[in-house]
User: Fold this.
Amino acid sequence: MFTTADLHEVSKIVNGEHSDPHHILGMHEIWNGQTEFIAVRVFFPDAESVTLIDLDEPDKTTAMERIHTAGFFEAQFSETKELFRYELEVTFLSGSKWRTRDPYSFLPQLSDMDLFLFGQGTHYEIFDKLGAHAKTVDGSDGVSFAVWAPNAKRVSVVGDFNGWNGLRSQMRALQKSGVWEIFIPGLKNGDKYKFEIISKAGSRILKSDPYGFFHELRPSTASLVCDISGHEWNDAGWIANRNKKNPLDGPVNIYEVHAGSWKSASNENGLPFLNWPQLSAELVPYVKEMNYTHIELMPVMEHPFDASWGYQVTGFFAPTNRFGLPDDFMTFVDTCHQNGIGVIMDWVPAHFPKDAHGLSRFDGTALYEPDDPLRAEHPDWGTLIFNYGRREVKNFLIASAIFWLEKYHIDGLRVDAVASMLYLDYGDSRKSWIPNAQGGRENWEAAEFLKHMNSVIHGRYPNVMMIAEESTEWEGVTRSVESNGLGFSLKWNMGWMNDFLKYMKKEPVHRQYHHSYLTFGMMYAYTERFILVLSHDEVVHMKGALVNKMPGDIWQKLANLRVGLMFMAGHPGKKLIFMGGEIAQFEEWSEAKSVNWFLLEFEHHRQMQQFNKELNKFYLTEKSLWFDEFKSGTFSWIDCDDAARSLISFYRSYTKTEGKTEYLVFVCNFTPAAYENHRIGLPAPGVYKEVFNSDAKKYGGSGVTNDKPINSEKAACDKKANSLVMRVPPLGGAVLKWMG
Assistant:
């Protein structure tokens, strides 16, 4: 029998060079100029024989004829003019047999509209189309695969199911979209796969799935077919409440966590840290007990290298295998929500690693990154920068952000390294760079991407927090896109953090010369919506633990830390502290070590933990500390000029709907000198009661407190008509509440 196919095309199939194997393989209606009939063609390298089975008449089988020695077979049905469903039974030279529906008998699983929207960069649920999706097509269970590789000569799916032979499951290119697709029957959840790509230059490239939902545990790098649709969520109440309330009008006090080093333990993978079920059972109750409002997870997307802390991502749609299954992570988020805790994830659209199985030169060309190395690489990090001007790349990133909010119910994304995205000359070691079209250093394509992303996300999830880690003076990071801002909800206040820690490191006797480090933050506090952060970056790489930044003996270190954290609680801005800081861990953080929980065997560490627990509770219950805090009228200095004594005082206020105003007066002393009769001006006359004191004995302090209510006097002080006399603790602070 002669083949009905073009021999040139058969040769391209056999050699793995055909961009549309479905055009040749599978079942086809043939017209030879005289009669119409059916031809079925298959290609199975290393096959000894192939038998076709008519599914409508299972007893009717046809031995297919070998057309090409490489494994190309064909069967012709001259008496049949209509297409029919069939299976193939393949006997390989090894003697093994495989029965399957023909992958080349199925229609494309992406529509023309899918391809159009993806090409426009606006298919925000593209994760439901690209990647691997277990489904039933034409009565057959299997997996639909699709990947974007516009410059490839050929793309195949490879895995255990086909002996990792790229000639077996060759995909078809859909129109001019750059998307390749195939449905393979018989595959299931848990099956390993990769994409084998032949570049235009003929190189063979093996890549993990950019849209994969799960991947093998490092150091293995195959993607795993994974259905993530089965979780039964129990957080409807949390989501409904979140949709009603703007989080910016509420308390936000974040406990930043590196999941791999919060606590040492063995998990089911044999790894020396907790998995998601264990973290659900231990971390969530701890955060709830400590009165934090949110957990912020350092990146938990799949990444190859533990010491990158997750910031070099290879799986932008996959929780890392280190901590368990995707459903385990969903359960963790669900557990947080059921306990009144929000979940923020670090998300990294600024760069990606060069690992061979990742996005780097994905189809043999610079696909996700710019082609010019001066635009493509971060010189300090050894990573590649996304091409923010390419529609499909922007679609990939925005879809990734939406994916975590939609599929995993995440409450906020902390967008890492925004400054590196915004400046073309970013990097201490960057010696050369290409200016923008106006000759400047701004990366306008990245800025427009961020605006687009935030517009889309806030349009879908108005009360999800988009948080920028942005360390420069770029104007309008948290201004709305409509007002030409970047559209973020909040911005990390790196300036405040640097000034605060510089000040706290000074010996108390020298602090009078650096008083502005404490007060300067209020000069720009209302230019953006800020989060005050004491993050992981400040307690690693020889920077020392938070408590060890404080001068003095052990008592002074702890007292300094307490008054510093109390000052932070009173300062406008949402709050964040990294794990271990709340118990005054002395050892700086390492991703390879647990928080030093054994320190809680010692009283002063238990006292520090108790201090933070009660300070967090105080922050939660006092509305003046967070409601309308981004409006300038809610904070006022009382005295910010007493540099000689390193004393500062201020008040926070909250006006109720009925017009009554509440006041909290903060007095912070950053020297070891106590003051028994300190007079302070007041926002209003009346009775004031001490409601918090960092020097209380239960926290390990010296006990210089104000135990009785204090009546104001009509005596001018601090440019106020009314004042009172109080005790001010050494290296401590007191908060007085106006009782009316």
